[in-house]
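Translate structure to sequence.
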C-alpha cells in the first residue's frame, strides 16, 4: 500500500530541494539580466479592474510614464472606455475583457497582450469587489465572491504573467490590498481577502526575487472614487473626519505609490506593503 503521508512529504522535500537549488544557481544574477534594457517608455503594463475608479487613475499615471497599457476588466464597456481615454490623451492602450476568477480567461487575456506588444513588464492587480456584512450575516457566497474576484483573481493574473516576466529577467507586480486588513466593521470577507493578497505577495516576492521580479502591495485607505463611494454618506463622513490629512485619498495619491513600485527605481523593494491612508492607520 502506498504511504500517502510519506509520499506527500517526499514530494514536499523534493520541491524545497529544487527551490534551494534554484536559489543557489542564481540564473539571472548577471548585471545584464538584472538591469532592464527597456526604458520606461517601452514598457507594457497590464492593469486589471482598469475600468474602475482607481483603475482609471493608475492606468493614466503609468501611461504618462510612457508605458503601453493593457486595460483589463470583466466589464467590456468599462475596459474599452478606459483604453479610449488613454489613447485620447496620447497613450497606447489595448482593452481586454477577462473575468479574473476564470484562470483560462486570464491566460487568454495575457496571451493576447503579449501577441500585441511582445512583452509584459508590469502587472497591477486592482480587479475586485466588496461585500460588507456583520460577522453573523456573512454568507459563504459573499465571502467566496469577494475572495475569488480579489485574491484568486490576483493569483490567476500573477500565474499567467510571471512566465513572461521571467523571460525578460525583469518585472514589477503591484497588488492592491487595503487598510481593511487591520480590521473594519462588517469587513470580514473583504479584510480576509486583502490579507490573503498581502500574504501571497510576500511568498511570491521570495520566489521571484532571483528573476529580477519584485512583488509588492499598495494598501489604500479611503479613496474618493470607486467602491468607497458606494458606502452610505453618513458613514463616509464619520470616517473621513478621522483622517489626519483631513481628506480622502484621490486616485492620483494611490497611483503615485503604484507608479513608484512599478518603476525600475524600486528594484530593491520587494514583499512590502506601502500604505496610502493620509495617516488614518497611525496611533494618536
Ligand atoms: N476605493 C477605495 O476606497 C479602495 C480602498 C482600498 C482598496 N481599494 C481596492 O482598489 C481596487 C479598485 O477598487 P475601486 O475603488 O476602483 O473599485 P471599482 O468597483 O470602481 O473598480 C473595480 C473594477 O474591477 C472590475 N472587476 C470586478 N470583478 C472583476 C473580475 N472578476 N474580473 C475582472 N474585473 C473585475 C469591475 O468591473 C470594476 O471596473 C480594489 O481591489 C479595491 O478593493 C479601493
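Result:
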Amino acid at each position: 500500500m502506498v504511504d500517502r503521508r510519506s509520499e506527500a512529504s517526499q514530494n514536499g522535500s523534493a520541491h524545497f530541494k529544487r527551490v534551494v537549488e534554484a536559489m543557489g544557481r542564481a540564473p539571472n544574477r548577471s548585471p545584464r539580466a538584472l538591469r532592464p534594457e527597456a526604458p520606461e517608455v517601452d514598457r507594457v503594463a497590464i492593469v486589471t479592474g482598469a475600468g474602475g475608479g482607481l483603475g482609471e487613475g493608475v492606468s493614466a499615471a503609468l501611461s504618462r510614464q510612457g508605458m503601453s497599457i493593457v486595460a483589463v476588466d470583466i466589464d467590456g464597456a468599462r475596459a474599452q472606455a478606459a483604453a479610449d481615454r488613454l489613447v485620447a490623451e496620447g497613450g497606447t492602450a489595448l482593452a481586454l475583457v477577462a473575468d479574473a476568477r476564470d484562470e483560462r480567461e486570464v491566460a487568454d487575456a495575457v496571451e493576447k497582450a503579449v501577441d500585441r506588444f511582445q512583452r509584459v513588464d508590469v502587472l497591477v492587480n486592482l480587479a475586485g469587489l466588496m461585500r460588507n456584512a456583520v460577522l453573523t450575516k456573512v454568507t459563504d457566497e459573499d465571502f467566496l465572491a469577494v475572495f475569488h474576484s480579489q485574491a484568486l483573481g490576483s493569483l490567476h493574473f500573477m500565474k499567467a504573467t510571471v512566465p513572461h516576466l521571467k523571460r525578460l529577467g525583469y518585472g514589477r507586480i503591484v497588488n492592491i490590498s487595503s487598510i481593511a486588513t487591520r480590521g473594519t466593521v462588517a469587513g470580514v470577507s473583504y479584510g480576509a481577502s486583502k490579507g490573503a493578497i498581502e500574504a501571497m505577495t510576500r511568498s511570491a516576492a521570495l520566489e521571484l526575487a532571483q528573476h529580477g521580479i519584485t512583488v509588492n502591495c499598495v494598501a489604500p485607505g479611503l479613496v474618493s472614487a470607486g467602491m468607497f463611494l458606494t458606502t452610505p454618506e453618513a458613514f463616509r463622513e464619520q470616517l473621513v473626519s478621522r483622517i489626519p490629512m483631513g481628506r480622502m485619498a484621490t486616485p492620483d495619491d494611490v497611483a503615485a505609490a503604484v507608479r513608484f513600485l512599478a518603476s525600475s527605481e524600486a528594484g530593491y523593494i520587494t514583499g512590502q506593503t506601502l500604505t496610502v491612508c493620509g495617516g488614518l492607520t497611525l496611533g494618536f
